Amino acid sequence: MSVNISGMMKTIRNIMREDTGLNGDAQRIEQLGWMIFLKVLSDKEKELELINDNYVSPLPKEYHWDAWAGDAEGITGDELLNFVDRKLFPDLRSLDVSTGNRRALVIRDVFEGNHNYMKSGINLRRVLNKLNELNFNIAEERHLFGEIYEGILKELQSAGKSGEFYTPRAVTQFITDMVNPKLNEKILDPACGTGGFLTCTIEHLKKQLKKGSQRDVLQENVAGWEYKPLPFLLATTNLILHDIEVPNLRYDDTLSRPLTEYKQKDRVEVIVANPPFGGVVSSGFEKNFPQNFRTKESADLFLVLMIHLLKDGGRAGIVLPDGSLTGDGVKQRIREHLLTTCNLHTIIRLPNSVFQPYASVATNLLFFTKGAPTKEIWYYEHRLPEGMKAYSKTKTIQVNEFEPIKDWWYKRAESDVAWKVPIDKIKADGYNIDIKNPHVKEEEHTYTSTELLELLHSSFRKSDELLDKLKKELIKG
């Protein structure tokens, strides 16, 4: 069965490569994305209509998969192309959402931001017929396809700039395991990308299910926000593949609302996220934040937002680049805010290449609880496996590499890869939390880009001082 599905996906890829309208992996994935979404959704609707006699689908009958795509001998060529471009997309983009039907809203949001790129109606029909070989109401097929879908999302890493939406599975799994969300807690990823953290959380919570009615609670309590159309579409499908009937996803730029608009009712117990970093926020969005926290760096604004969104006692596990752990001015004020309002108890330092090929910046996993100030921070340096120079597209970070950290987590002790730093030392150093491993000899140490810049600056300063001295000596002489 597995070979069958992966073979089917290869065939689809080859058909798409023949089509002149598709240019590159990102477009191919978007094209495949909206078709899979509609097929998964339609299969789900069939199931719901069988279970519930009163169920009314928000998807108009003529746009249900079976009506236009399900028949192998159905419309094709220009007729199919015209139907998709002139009816399906325009009508689903303007779907009536006035009743507050969440499923209708999800459908509209998905189609609002995505496109049909294929130019040949005959190729389009060939792809649809291949997808018809799948039945998502058969649990085994859905599960196997879920694994292949994970591979599709991974492909995004090398599809232009879209890699920013994919966090390696080993990282999402480790963060979720350590934060340990519970069934009755509200859990949020405010920058959910393709839904990696959300699906990890859902699988984690499923193990806690005792009765069927708790499934509705799970569905309601796991929420994600995403503002780019392609990852939003992929996340929505991802959640449906993980048995979430109506994904609790919001198609919205998280930073576009004033911080003061988020009230107590918006607060959550758990945040797991990999906020976008290295990006510059949209024009003027920094004005949505208090004056002393305004910056153009998206990761820093997300950090302020996430602290604000946590309830007292709420827990977070997030990915942040080295650049957010150091620096003065607004960066320092944001870190001071984090350390005084939250207990930042653990920082796991990752090797530079974890996010290859999308980014080679050094990243860290930060774990904190809101409501009490930090007294000390434990650091753990996660090293590359023996004999490996760097992670790559084919050699990614693996779940089992985090086992030693899990063992250490519950009975912490200093070692050549673990150390702790008291808050007084951190305060004295301008709230700098980019603290390198003290057990590593200087020549062994791999410098971060931030550290290299600092070393360069200090050598320039020393050179300037020596030049000044020399000038004064010459003038005296």
In short:
By secondary structure, the chain is α/β, with parallel strands linked by helices.
How would you describe the overall organization of this protein?
- The chain folds into 3 domains: 2-137, N6 adenine-specific DNA methyltransferase, N-terminal domain (Ferritin); 153-446, Vaccinia Virus protein VP39 (Rossmann fold, 3-Layer(aba) Sandwich), CATH 3.40.50.150; 448-477.
- Helix 1 (2-18) runs antiparallel to helix 6.
- The model has no long low-confidence stretch (mean pLDDT 88).
- The N and C termini lie far apart (88 Å).
- The protein has 16 helices and 9 strands.
- Helix content is 45%, strand content 12%.
- With 477 residues, the protein is an alpha/beta fold.
- It has a 9-stranded mixed β-sheet.
- The longest helix has 28 residues, at 449-476.
CATH uppermost class of the largest domain: Alpha Beta
The description of the largest β-sheet is: 9 strands, mixed
What is the fold-level CATH name, i.e. the topology of the largest domain? Rossmann fold
CATH superfamily placement of the largest domain: Vaccinia Virus protein VP39
Number of helices: 16
Instruction: Please state how the strands of the largest beta sheet are arranged side by side.
Output: 3-2-1-4-5-7-6-8-9
Which word captures the global form?
Answer: elongated
Q: Helices and strands, in N-to-C order?
A: HHHHHHHHEHHEHEEHEHEEEHEHH
What is the quaternary state of this protein?
A: single chain
List segments where confidence is low: pLDDT < 50 over at least 5 consecutive residues.
none
Structural class: alpha/beta
What portion of residues belong to β-strands?
5-15%
Give me the Rg, rounded: 25 Å
Mean pLDDT: 88
Total strand segments? 9
Number of domain modules: 3
Residues in helices, as a percent range: 40-55%
